[in-house]
Amino acid sequence: MVPDVPGATSTRSDGESPEPLGYELTDEYDMPAEVDATFRTLRRVAFGYFTVFLVVVAAVPVLTLALDWWSQGRLIGGMSPSFAMAAFGLYVFFFVLAIAAATLANAVEDRMLGGPERDQHEQRSTPL
Amino acid sequence: MITASIFGLVALLVVVLGLALVLRPRGPSTLDFYLAGRRVGVATNACAICGDYFSAASFLGVAAAVYVSGLDGIWYATGFAAGFIPVLLFVAAPLRRFGEFSIPDFLGRRLESDGTRLTAVTVVQLIILSYLVPQAVGSGITWELLVGHGIAGLSPYATGVLVTTAAITLIVALGGMRGTTWTQAVQFLLLLCAFIWLAIAVLGSGFNYAGAVDELSTGPLANPSVEDGEWRLETERDRIDGDEPATFGEPGARYGQLGQFALIITLIMGTAGLPHIMNRYFTSPTGIAARMTTVWVLGLAGVFYALAVLLGTAARSLIPEAAREHPWLAELTVDGVLRVPEHALLVLGRIYGDEVGLGFIATGALIAVMSTIAGLLLASAASWGHDVYERHLNPRASQRQAVWAGRSAVVLVAVVSAVVALTMRPDSLTALLPSIVATMVTWAFALAGSALTPVFMLTIWWRGTTAAGAVAGMATGTITAIGMIVAGTVLGADGLREMLLTPTVVAAPLAATVTVLVSRRTVTPPNLDRLWLKLHGTAADRQALRLARLTIAGIDEPSRGAAGNATKSRQR
Fold first, then answer.
1. Helices (H), chain A
2. pTM score of the predicted model
3. pLDDT tens per residue across span B543-556
4. I need a surface site. Which of A115, B24, B188, B243 has the fewest CB within 10 A?
5. Window B:522-551, CB contacts with A under 8 Å
6. Under an 8 A CB cutoff, do B89 and A79 touch?
7. What is the pLDDT of residues B159-216, one digit of tens each?
8. Is B266 in contact with B442 (CB distance < 8 Å)?
9. Which of B34, B91, B207, B295 to mutate to test the interface with A (most CBs of A within 10 A)?
10. Percent of chain B's residues with pLDDT above 70
11. In 3D, which of B191, B223, B176 has the Cα closest to residue B24?
12. C-alpha–C-alpha distance, residues B334 and B344, integer Å
C-alpha cells in the first residue's frame, strides 16, 4: 500500500505515468525527501567523475604543448606517448571510469531509495 | 562488377529484411512501433546503439581522418567514444525513468509545454537531416567503388544513394523499433567482424603498428589536392608550429591548439543530443538497464575505434608500396596517396582479400550506413508521427492511424535526404574538406551539442528550468551553431575557420546561459514535484524488478513441481 505522505507518488510498472498519491495501489513508492537527497548525491557523483574525465581528456593535447617528450618521445616499438594514449589508452580509461561511475550510482540509489518498502519486504520474509 | 560483393550485399539485404519481417510489430501499437515495447535487454540494446551510432563517419570516416591527418584525425574517434561518458553520467537513467517516446516528447512533458515540444521537433529534424545526408553520401561512395555500375541510366553514386535509402526505408517501415533493434545489433556484430578480419589480415602480414607510426612521423605529411585541374601532392602545414610541415604522429596537421579542444568538446557534447541514440534509451526496461547499457557501449566503442585508428594508420603506411604492385590503384592514388580518403579501408580490403575482401569491407560500409539511416528514420518518424501528429494534429488518432503516420514520415524523410545527397558531389567537396563524411557528421554533432544538450541537461538536473527558458536556449544554440558553421565555410583563415566549424564550445555555453537567464524570469511547471519524482525516483525500476522476480519465480515453481513429480514417478 502507498503510505499517506504528502507528495509521495506511486509508479506503474511500465513507467508510463505515475499517479498521484492514493490513486493506485502498489508497494513501490518514492518519498520526495529521499529522492531529493539521492538526486543531490548523484549530481555530486556525476560532476566529480565528469571533472576527472575532462581533466584527463584535456591533458592529452595540453601535455603536447608542455612536454616535448609527450609527443616526440618513443615508447617500446616507436609510438609516442601522445599517440598511444589517443589511439587506445583513452578508451581503456573511459571504460574503467564508466564501470566505476555506474557501480557507484547504482549503489547510491540502492541504499538511499526504497528503504521503507525494503524494510516491509524484509519483515514479511523474516521467518517467525 | 564484383560477384562476391554482390552476393554479400544480396545476402545482407535478405537477412535484415527477414529479421525485420519476423520481428515486426504484431499489432498496431505505437509503444511497439517506436519503442519495441520497452523490453530490450542490456546487451542487445548496447549492440543496437553501436549499430545505430557507428555510421559511415565511424566506419569509413575515422580511418579516413586518421589516414589524412594522422594524430589529429584520431580526435574524431576519441570524441565519438567520449560522448557516451556525459550520457552515462547525466542522461541515460533519468531519461529512461521519465519514460517518453522521444527527446521532444521528454522536453514537452517535463516542462509541460507544447511550444517546447514543437521547438524541439524542429531542432531534432535539422539534426536528423544533417546526419542523414552524409550517410547517404557514404552509401553512394561505397556503391561507386564496390559495384561501379548504375541502374536504369543512373550514375553509380546515385544508384548507391537510392538503393540503400529504399532498402532501409522498407525495413524500418515494416519492422518498427523491434525489427530495427535486432537488425542493428546484427549489423554491428558484422561491422565489428569486418574490422577484426581486416586487422588480423594486416597484422598477420607483418605490419608493425608502432613502427609504422614512428616511420610515418619522420617525414612531412602530404595529401593530394586539385590545382588547375590536376591532382598533385601538397605538404600539410603544421597549424601549431606555424610554417613547419605537419607530421603523421604529432598534432597540427588539421587543427591548431584551440581547434583540437573545439572539436572534442563538439563531439562530447553532441552525443547526448543525438535523437536516434537517445531514443534507444527509452527502449530499456529500467533506468539501471539504460545506465549499464551505456557501460557496454563504451567498452564496445573502445574496441571499435581502436581498430579504426589502427587500420587508418595501416592504410597510410601500406598503400604507397601496394600502389607499385597493383595497377588498379593508379586511378585512385596520386604518388601512392589516395585521392578520396574514405577509400582507405576498401582499398586495404582489396589488397588483403582481393575481390572477396573488398566485398566484405564494402558490405560493412553499407551496413554502417544502413543501420544508422534506420535509426535516424525511426527517430524522425517518432518525432513527426508521435510528437506532431498524435500530440497536435490528431490527438484522437487510433493506434493504427498513429503507426501509419510514423510509416509515412519514414518515407518522406528518406526521400528528402536522398534528394539532398544526390545534389552533392563528393569528389569536389573532398578537395575542400578532407574526410567529408566525418566532417559533415561533425556538423550534426555541433547542432545537437549546441541546441539540445545544454537544455536537455539543465532540464534533467536543474529544477528551475522553464519552458520559456528551454525554447530560448534551443533557439540560441541553433542560430549560433548554424551561423558559425556557415561563416566557417565562407571564411578562409585557418584558426578562425576551424573554430567556427566546431561551434559547440561557444554555442553551448551561450544556450545554457540564455536558458538559465530566461528561466529565472519565468515560472516552473505547477507539477514540478511530481515530475521530479518520476525523473529521479527509482520506484518504477524496483517495481519492474519485482515483477521480473515474481515472473521468474512463477516459471520456476511449476517447473520445479514438474521435476519433483517426475522424480517421484521414477522412484515409484
1. 32-66, 68-72, 81-84, 90-112, 115-125
2. 0.87
3. 888 887 787 777 66
4. B243
5. 529-530, 532-534, 536-540, 542-544, 546-547
6. no
7. 988 988 888 888 888 778 777 888 888 889 989 999 999 999 999 999 999 999 999 9
8. yes
9. B295
10. 90
11. B176
12. 13
d(CA B46, CA B301): 10
> How far, in whole angstroms, is CA B542 from its chain's centroid?
32
**Does the beta-carbon distance from B251 to A92 stay under 8 Å?**
no
- CA dihedral sign, ordered B417, B419, B422, B426: negative
Model confidence at A15: pLDDT above 60:
no
Please report the ipTM that was assigned to this predicted complex.
0.88
For the cut 60, the answer to whether the pLDDT of residue B391 exceeds it is yes
Q: Taking CB atoms and an 8 Å limit, are B546 and A28 in contact across chains?
A: yes
Spans of all domains in chain B: 2-526
Provide the pLDDT for residue B202: 96
Residue with cell 596537421: B253
| pLDDT of B432 higher than 70 | no
C-beta atoms surrounding B250 within 10 Å: 23
Q: How confident is the model at residue B532 (pLDDT cuts 50, 70, 90)?
A: very high
What CA–CA distance (Å, rounded) separates B14 from B12?
5
| B2-526 homologous superfamily | Sodium/glucose cotransporter (1.20.1730.10)
Residue in chain B closest to A68 (alpha carbons) equals: B250
The shortest C-alpha distance from B69 to chain A (Å) reads 13
Region of residue B541 (left: phi > 0; alpha: psi -120 to 50; beta: else): alpha
- Test B306 with A91 for CB contact under 8 angstroms: yes
The separation between the first and the last C-alpha atoms of chain A, rounded to the nearest angstrom, is: 22
Nearest to B130 by CA among B381, B437, B384: B437
Instruction: Say if residues B234 and B46 touch (Cβ distance below 8 Å).
Output: no
Report chain B's mean pLDDT, rounded to a whole number. Answer: 86
Count of A-B CB contacts under 8 Å: 185
The residues with which A64 forms a beta bridge, in sequence order, are none
The pLDDT tens digits for A101-110 are 999 999 999 9
Exposure letters B399-409 (e unless 16+ CB within 10 A, then b) = eebbbbbbbeb
Which residues in chain B have Cβ-Cβ distances shorter than 8 Å to A74? 214
Which residues, including other chains, have CB under 8 Å from residue B425's CB and lie 6 or more apart? Answer: none
Question: Does the beta carbon of B214 lie under 8 angstroms from any beta carbon of chain A?
Answer: yes
